Predict the 3D structure of the following.
Amino acid sequence: MSKNPDGKQIKVGILGATGTVGQRFITLLAKHPWFTIHVLGASSRSAGKPYTLAVMWKQTTPIPSVVRDMIVRECHPQHFAECAIIFSGLDADAAGEIESAFRSADLAIFSNAKNYRRDPSVPLIVPLVNDSHLSIIPQQQALQNPPLKKGFIVTNANCSTTGYVIPLRALEKAFGPIESCLVTTMQAISGAGYPGVPGLDIIDNVVPYIGGEEEKMEWETLKILGGIADGDDGVKTFDMHARHPLRVSASCNRVPVIDGHTMCVSVRFQQRPPPSPQQVREALVAYTPVAQSIGCPSVPVHAIFVHEEPDRPQPRLDRYYQDGAGVSVGRVRQCPVLDIKFVVLANNVSIGAATSSIINAELAVLKGVVKVE
Amino acid sequence: MSKNPDGKQIKVGILGATGTVGQRFITLLAKHPWFTIHVLGASSRSAGKPYTLAVMWKQTTPIPSVVRDMIVRECHPQHFAECAIIFSGLDADAAGEIESAFRSADLAIFSNAKNYRRDPSVPLIVPLVNDSHLSIIPQQQALQNPPLKKGFIVTNANCSTTGYVIPLRALEKAFGPIESCLVTTMQAISGAGYPGVPGLDIIDNVVPYIGGEEEKMEWETLKILGGIADGDDGVKTFDMHARHPLRVSASCNRVPVIDGHTMCVSVRFQQRPPPSPQQVREALVAYTPVAQSIGCPSVPVHAIFVHEEPDRPQPRLDRYYQDGAGVSVGRVRQCPVLDIKFVVLANNVSIGAATSSIINAELAVLKGVVKVE
Amino acid sequence: MSKNPDGKQIKVGILGATGTVGQRFITLLAKHPWFTIHVLGASSRSAGKPYTLAVMWKQTTPIPSVVRDMIVRECHPQHFAECAIIFSGLDADAAGEIESAFRSADLAIFSNAKNYRRDPSVPLIVPLVNDSHLSIIPQQQALQNPPLKKGFIVTNANCSTTGYVIPLRALEKAFGPIESCLVTTMQAISGAGYPGVPGLDIIDNVVPYIGGEEEKMEWETLKILGGIADGDDGVKTFDMHARHPLRVSASCNRVPVIDGHTMCVSVRFQQRPPPSPQQVREALVAYTPVAQSIGCPSVPVHAIFVHEEPDRPQPRLDRYYQDGAGVSVGRVRQCPVLDIKFVVLANNVSIGAATSSIINAELAVLKGVVKVE
Amino acid sequence: MSKNPDGKQIKVGILGATGTVGQRFITLLAKHPWFTIHVLGASSRSAGKPYTLAVMWKQTTPIPSVVRDMIVRECHPQHFAECAIIFSGLDADAAGEIESAFRSADLAIFSNAKNYRRDPSVPLIVPLVNDSHLSIIPQQQALQNPPLKKGFIVTNANCSTTGYVIPLRALEKAFGPIESCLVTTMQAISGAGYPGVPGLDIIDNVVPYIGGEEEKMEWETLKILGGIADGDDGVKTFDMHARHPLRVSASCNRVPVIDGHTMCVSVRFQQRPPPSPQQVREALVAYTPVAQSIGCPSVPVHAIFVHEEPDRPQPRLDRYYQDGAGVSVGRVRQCPVLDIKFVVLANNVSIGAATSSIINAELAVLKGVVKVE
């Protein structure tokens, strides 16, 4: 079992522990080499009950024994004071206030909610892409009143954004700026939570619309793939890929798939002539994110697995490979309109949600951003 | 009941009458105001049997009484000599030889097969788009040896091509040439025929590949939307949209939907500035193909129905509107990379297959290309 | 168009007009030969809006023009005073009070809700089975305070019960009492209303449980197939099949099907030896309910359609036959444990819901139970 | 890692290695503590190719490295001479001749095919039920010409039979003979192999018929749950549960589920009064098959897992529990017609197919029926 820098078990709490993302956090953290589940938080309706009675468990593996009889708490900071890390799987309507209160209590939150993604001092981190954005944390802490020593919020991206920015980052690293990107998604229903999409709306159907999703993808991509600019006044700002303007057009669809977002992506590079499909395949295979090189335990062996078969990736066959922690790319070929097109598959409940938060926390531990006592 | 020009019932034959497309031909023709089903042709395995015993009927309405006891014939021209029109629902592996033999016997064939779509003297007609291409027929007849008086082959397009070229044609008519088009399809399994896609491959899945489909869409679009050029030698040729080169990039996916192809389309116009989304909506609503204005009985009231709701069209709700003879468009909006993007839904077994052949035949009757005695 | 006894258009109102059952009522009544939609009732949230803006329309045909601009009313009797018939598609949590208030206002209600099905003076009528139970209406009217002249409540059965009691009734009519019946259902998700069953719970899944459903089927069957006993005191009571006790065992399952409940049924007759499968088939084909013989316009030609193919009925192929107003039976064969087993398919949103209420109203008109002025 | 009696690796071969069952054998055997995959056999079309090129791999885990480059052989006994055990995943049309030839070559075959299930000297073994039937093997060997020393055929049951005979066996062990059993299945499409059920036939549908399946279930149940009778002539015969005649009625349906057969079962016991639901639950939980007590490594901890939640088992949530090697039972309750009813879920590709063959082989090793050198 891999060791964290200090060789200690790190106590973690989970907010929204009875929800879909919370259940996924529990499933993953129950077998984590560093993190120990210490507190489970949920709404007042669940508080006071043992977890087994509070939850409507929907995972395909049983409830881990370590949490079965744990008494669920309300989401108040005092119950989580001993936790070095808080994972939040809260719904957006609750996350805003609760996460703010937890940060004010000097707690470190890794959130899957959308509420603070656009905050200019909160990093939006896809762990296989832009771990460097953790450098904004001191500024975030300084801006609080009173300034914080340990507390902060780190968010991860929307499940549809996460999957395709990983290959985009690999391509920009190898070939320089991407100028435009057109992406059409075919998204799994688990991305909408539970109960989520009614069966009547999705069996034998496609819904060519997901409220707010296209705008999220188009905006988040710029924050994630952009850098951090240092202002003359010493203030850091996310540059939104501004030095090399990147135009993104997303079309988002819901399809009758349980887990796994499939996306058709076309890109145009600034560099002329653009790379060939074979060069693109090689760059994707070669991509090694920092999270791999510094040894985050939840990182997959293949950040990007490149398929050679003409009909892959497919969600049903490929979504659980490497526990869903990497992404699959296939059908890399020329695009007659832009330069290169390919298909991406990302497991929206793993790398698209809980796994991202967990690797973000691992990065923060290894980089000393989370203080482990 | 509408009258054809001569007020006569027109005898028609159906090739491949027991297959999926053949069954759809029968369902539609059994209630057609002009056409009378006169002969059913199928493989030697079915020949000699009454239709009811030869077919594994998969339509949701019962076998029409007019064909129930009709004895199925082999696909030899002598059985079809009395037919003014032959509809072909043959598979590609049989269509090449049989359709050629029928044409040599001076019969008029409207084919759903792909075999002759690329023939330089065979028109590839989407009836709500390029009926003008019927003008190549005399040249086709003259090229046969001996030259033909009545026989010819007209093909209709691949089901995925058909749906999206209708709005593209409406846009070119209103705003001039389209310069590039990027289309991502989510195609129904009925497009692959029967037995077609195994359930194990498609339930809870997306298959991001359909062999040959992308190439078909990219090529057929040019032939359909292009014009006919008159050479100095008096020879007509399809110009493949050459005067205004059009780049098309298609990404084709199979999704767990029974009927109805959904497509996300982005286009860039040559005209600068491009039309606004509202202008595009109005042009789509206003589009009136020739087949409507000259009174083809199977043409829908709305060639293009434009939805205002944000989440439409959807295959399960919209595919049977107008008996699937028109197309639905929704979500017309700006594309940050090209100019305009929108969603198209087309019923692949109706306007995408049998209905196209039937309207093509109606056009040929009204234009005098088919000689009705 | 068929005439009602008095040749007049009959004004009807619809309660719960924006819900799933209400939408089905509208679709069917918009083309009804006798009934004219006069008032639409819904919750206060919808009241005051034109129907088009109040409803989230989920039918596969467009909103009928006759109701598009009709202003939705609250479910208060005064708005419905001119209606000779009220159809109720209300949810169970609202139906109890509202239907009672409407009856008190001397209105005739045909309800699809479960609230009054077990009331000893309310008939539970499957229109192709037990129209004779309308004879309890005078007693129901007399029991109200003050007694009513025109008002009453008639309920129809649960969608799963409806389908299989039709063949059971045909069998009892031909062969005498059934002694025991074991039925296993595979029910469509539309039976649970909208939003109903989450997609995450039913795609690639079977849920072997529907709360309360088995108990409903076991109880309702007895009320429907039983007679009405006249007590010494002149009081009529439903005899619950008591003279020939009937044991029913139901196992109810939800399957990933949009519309159409499929059921595997085994029965044991009192008569020894029991009828043969061929005799059973003939009895099912021959069954002619009163609603057919007296000319209810919404009754199908075949109350029970008997399939000969070994693999029918199937929901996707057979559920819309005859507009879903009849039932399909197939695979009639010997049961090694009881006597005879077979498969039933019933369209749960048609004969299993709105169509039943409508035929019940037609029966009531033809029998003079509803007073048409 | 558990040890086999002799502590040696046992070489095994797989017939039909490229098919669906063969792929499952490979996935399971690649991590088996005793068995080493030594030869892969398939049709002449595949023979000579490395496995990776011969197979169209459809499992959700990658091809195990141990077989990736193994050259596929034709199914001739000489290639398998070094194998102590042969697993057969052959299709029925090939299994008859090939398995017979292998047995004649004195090889021990554990077959998933149906061909020899009804042979009076071939045991039909569900490993958690009737391992005692291995005692017929010496008679089978003696009947061959020339008599065999090591070769034999053991079959396992049809996937639908396997699941429900396990709880039936537990109930007979606890409460004595079952008199009648009525079972309705909702079977996954993977039970039909690949390509198997067309997507067009099963999406949004139920097919209430599987050719031959009901008869198989009704017959196999008697052979499996019956004993072996010793005739006066020393000849052993399967008694088909004859001392306590058992009537079985099966109704088999195909539903849109990838893996996992769900079954609704009602039973009547000979014992009066019958056991209560609670007694039945306890007997199911307590059931310990011989395969568990003697230490077969592939046996699950819970042969029968009994759910307390009202809506379980469900295929999507429960089919992969314990790697699909046990069965799940839920909803144990009284049956108003017979005595007790409940729901069974069995993973048809695991305990319903490959896992059964493997545990049968483990039993044969531990009992000395397979001679390990």
About this structure: The two ends of chain D are 20 Å apart (CA to CA). The mean pLDDT of chain D is 96. The CA atoms of residues 91 and 113 of chain D lie 6 Å apart.
